[in-house]
Amino acid sequence: MKNAKLILSQVAEAIASGHSVFMTDGTVTRKVIKVEITDFNLSFGKEGTFDVLVENDGWKQIPMTWPFEDLNGYGLTELDGNLYIAPDWWIAL
Question: Could you report the per-residue pLDDT of 29-67, keeping only the tens digit for each?
Fold first, then answer.
């Protein structure tokens, strides 16, 4: 799944219901605490970001393609009952 609004909804719902959500860059995996979207109209150059607060590592920003609101280079997948925000190449494995 690449659509930022759908990912935001699924991740927020999972966190609210006590399920684990993780973010990985392919080498380091950390628990997700919160997600939000920085609107295209508020950001420089009309590029929005999908913002992820990860445990013990602060905020990470994933660019979103305009105007389609898809994550650029990342997506959401489910593995062993947990959600993962991960690079496209990691999801393809």
Answer: 999 999 998 876 654 555 688 999 999 989 999 988 876
The rounded distance, in Å, linking the Cα atoms of 57 and 78 is 22
Q: What is the mean pLDDT of residues 61-74?
A: 86
In the structure encoding, which two tokens stand for residue 16, read together? 């609210």
Instruction: Please state the pTM of the whole predicted model.
Output: 0.88
Number of H helices, E strands in the chain: 2, 7
Enumerate residues 6+ apart whose C-beta is below 8 A from 57: 30
Question: Residue 81 has which token pair?
Answer: 């009952």
Q: Is 89 exposed, middle or buried (0-12, 13-18, 19+ CB in 10 A)?
A: exposed
Nearest to 11 by CA among 61, 65, 73, 77: 77
